Amino acid sequence: MILKYNNMNHKKLNAVTRIFGITVLMVLASCLNAQNCHVRGRVTAPAIQGKHVTMMNMNTNRTMGKATIQDNTFSLDVEVAEPCVAMLITAPQTQMQRDYYYMKIVAEPGQIYLDLATDSLSGTPLNDLCSRFMRHCDQEVAAINALYGQLKEAATVPEDVAQELTQKINRRYDDLMSYVKKTFDENKDNPVGALVLEKYLELEDTDYEAVLPMLDGAAPVVTTYSQLRNKLAKMEVVSHTAAGK
């Protein structure tokens, strides 16, 4: 059989060549842009000394690297082309009791320092931001819970005191949620936004339709964060099976 050369085949060949060339260039660019992310951590639990800690990409659910815990510390280096949400998780402490440590961080170029036992995190811009955000949320939640405790004990105090406590709780909660929303809006283009929105869903009893507008303009590194995606999928199912649907 003789294949005849024609201009159409030539155009197709050029198109395929261009596509292949673009793909190769994208892969090469990704490799060239990859930078070193050095993670140094501390975990003091005696039961997991000599065991490993694994770093997972939470957008792809793939292992980024592993390290052995020795003398209460571990260290690992991974190549990062684009910042992403990552999780560091230890091996179980015992076979009978599946205790383990884990921490979510932003995998980005630079030196990252963390303590799995105390949840301390620092070293790079996005991780410093994430640490400040989580610390502020924890402090405010603790303060709100303390006010709730006072309110429960206010059964024997005048009604105006109970009303004042209720107003304090509502103001503090509203201020916290405004802070969370503002932080998310400022970080919809980076992995911190994914962790902030996850925190928002933890704090706010909201529905699927209310969250969707918040995702407008969010970067793929936010919308493909696996734990957020799973949470939204469950919320969507609930929204379709709610009363009146």
What does this structure look like?
- With 245 residues, this protein is α+β, with helices and mostly antiparallel strands.
- 49% of the residues lie in helices and 21% in strands.
- The strands form two sheets. Strands 4-1-7-8 form a four-stranded mixed sheet. A four-stranded antiparallel sheet has the order 3-2-5-6.
- The protein is globular.
- The termini are far apart.
- The N terminus is likely disordered.
- Helix count, per DSSP? 7
Strand order of the largest sheet: 4-1-7-8
Approximate shape: globular
What is the residue-averaged pLDDT? 84
- Helix percentage range: 40-55%
How many beta-strand elements? 8
Span between N and C termini?
63 Å
Low-confidence stretches: 1-31
User: What is the SS-derived class?
Assistant: alpha+beta
Quick description:
The chain is an alpha+beta fold and 245 residues long. Helix content is 49%, strand content 21%. It has a four-stranded mixed β-sheet. A four-stranded antiparallel β-sheet has the order 3-2-5-6.
What attributes does this structure have?
single chain; 245 residues; alpha+beta; 4-stranded mixed beta sheet; 4-stranded antiparallel beta sheet; 7 helices; globular; disordered N terminus
